[in-house]
Amino acid sequence: MTHNQTSAIVESPARWIRSRNRWTIFEILFWIATLAPLYFFPAYLNLASQVAITALFALSVDLVLGYAGIITLGHAMFFGLGAFTAGILSSRYGWGEPISGLLLGGMVAALAGYVTSFLIVRVQHLALIMVTLGLGLLTFELANSLRWLTGGTDGLTGISTWKIFGYFRFDLWGYTSYAYSLAVLFLGFLICRLVVSSSFGLALRGIRENVQRMPAIGSDYKWHLRKVYTISAAIAGIAGALLTQTTNTVTLEVLSFQRSADVVVMLILGGTGRLYGAIIGAVIFLVAKDQLAGINPQYWFLWIGILLMAVVLFMPKGILGGLSRLIRRED
User: What one GO molecular function would you report for this record (predicted)?
Assistant: First the structure.
């Protein structure tokens, strides 16, 4: 947080909150641009759906990492819980209604997030990383052992998603999947924007900057951390359920450490604590992965590593952070 931003918040918190809720022309143009794949890149609609889903997951992690300072390497736990909830609902119980599947996936993940949040708020720094990593690995092994429910290493089969609102069928070309994923991403973004642009969001920034001072001003920082962790878990669960519904498949990969690590890389690329950084990071990472894997399937991660090092060296606050710093210099 810059000195000017801090001064503006101290001078008038209410005015600062109103300014943060105001939409800019660049934001409006950005969301209009997200419709481009529907008209100009129809061959990449399935990839675009994956980008939208991953961006929603990245937003959930940015809430806790970028705004509350909770470093997590196990957030795939909530993503996977949402994915398996939607998959089990369809394959085991024959219920494929998409909206209720999303909500139930989010609720299950939120419940898990609330329960584990009591453990999360007790530790900090390296211990926090280890706890989140351990929770993620435990959930992965638990899902693997419950083969009768999750399918184990084979995953779930027989998943079928019904028409959205009874009218929009999921087509082979991906038009419905992308439109559906984009709509859910936008709603998730609005929720995240509402959270971070409120007095609650200001409290989260205070916790991130100096957690020791928060009790001195009468703020129950542990309660704030539990709330944002639960909200973040719910959004991650919705993203997982969305993946299951748009692909009609779910495997243990949704609970893997690799998925948690990838989303942290995306946030480093785009910039933490900015919301749009999560979306930009997801776009860059997945598009680069798709193109580089096509060129060299064995060593594509090498080039991702080089890109990551370049961003860290020359843009420590991510691509959006580097661009904003460049704009301020020109002003």
Answer: branched-chain amino acid transmembrane transporter activity
d(Cα 328, Cα 95) in Å, to the nearest integer?
52
Q: What is the pLDDT along the chain (331 residues), one digit of tens a residue?
A: 554 555 555 555 666 566 666 788 989 999 999 999 999 999 999 999 999 999 999 999 999 999 999 999 999 999 999 999 999 999 999 999 999 999 999 999 999 999 999 999 998 888 999 999 999 999 999 999 999 999 998 999 889 999 999 889 998 889 999 999 999 999 999 999 999 988 888 888 888 887 777 776 667 788 999 999 999 999 999 999 999 999 999 999 999 999 999 999 999 999 998 899 999 999 999 999 888 887 777 777 888 888 888 888 888 888 888 777 776 665 5
Domains in the chain: boundaries:
1-33, 36-256
Torsion angle, alpha carbons of 96, 99, 101, 103, to 10:
-170
